[in-house]
Amino acid sequence: MSQYNNVEIYFADDHEIVARSIANLLSSIDGVTHVTTFNNGKSLFLECNTRIPSLAILDMEMPGWSGLDTLKKLRELGSFPVLILSMNDEKSVITECIKSGANGYLNKNCSIKELQEAIESVLEGKTYLSEEIKKILVGMGSTQPSSFELTESLTDKELEVLKLVCEGLSSKEIGDKLFLSSRTIETHKNNLMKKFNVHTTGKLISLAIKNKIIK
């Protein structure tokens, strides 16, 4: 994202560990210089009354003001970019967000590449919808939440690694904490993804928090 410099992002998510992890991902994107996290939409909105960021990113399910509520309030302040980043993939919710002025919508299981593409698109004044969200809007995707079940129980060491992954630590940082090699940590992460039946770290973290495997 070299064409953009000094990108300031406000990000609201009520799950502290998830927020910290995603904030770390956002900070790693070229051109993003500052990420401020908020645990609810109202706090983000109040900060926007003082300083408008380059971009605001909102979770959908938050206590008090939902992502949609916050979006509507933000639109009273101006037309700066707002992205929705949520596990909620109900067609009616997505449609309402777009109608209410969201510049983009993507699922938390997105890759870092998709997240960067979304940021680039909305900063250019475009609307960004991930491929998964597009399929839902045209009726090809399932909007019914599926029941979650591990394919195999977790070992004590995997739980230990999972907790640190959810805190946003890299494999090297986890290895240093647990006195293990980065390669061993990567093996544990791969096993965790197989047991959770996911393909991205973001989805792994979201499921671990949502299903209270990591609190």
- In the CATH hierarchy, what is the superfamily of the largest domain? Response regulator
SSE string: EHEHEHEHEHEHHHHH
Basic shape: globular
Give the beta-strand count: 6
Structural classification: alpha/beta
CATH topology of the largest domain: Rossmann fold
Mean of residue pLDDT values: 88
Taking pLDDT < 50 over at least 5 consecutive residues as the criterion, the unreliable ranges are none
**CATH architecture annotation of the largest domain:** 3-Layer(aba) Sandwich
For the record, give the distance between the C-alpha atoms at the N and C termini, rounded to a whole number: 34 Å
Q: What is the level 1 CATH name of the largest domain?
A: Alpha Beta
Largest sheet: number of strands, sense, barrel closure:
6 strands, parallel
Helix segment count? 10
Note the beta-strand portion: 5-15%
Question: What spatial order of strands do you see in the largest sheet?
Answer: 2-1-3-4-5-6
Q: In the residues, how many domains can be counted?
A: 2
Helix content: 40-55%
Structure overview:
The longest helix has 15 residues, at 182-196. With 215 residues, the protein is of the alpha/beta class. The two termini are 34 Å apart. It has helices at residues 16-27, 41-50, 67-74, 91-99, 112-123, 131-137, 156-166, 171-178, 182-196, 201-210; strands at 7-12, 32-38, 55-58, 82-86, 104-107, 128-129. The protein has 2 domains: 7-137, Response regulator (Rossmann fold, 3-Layer(aba) Sandwich), CATH 3.40.50.2300; 156-210, Arc Repressor Mutant, subunit A, CATH 1.10.10.10. The protein has a 6-stranded parallel sheet with strand order 2-1-3-4-5-6, with helices on both faces. The model has no long low-confidence stretch (mean pLDDT 88).
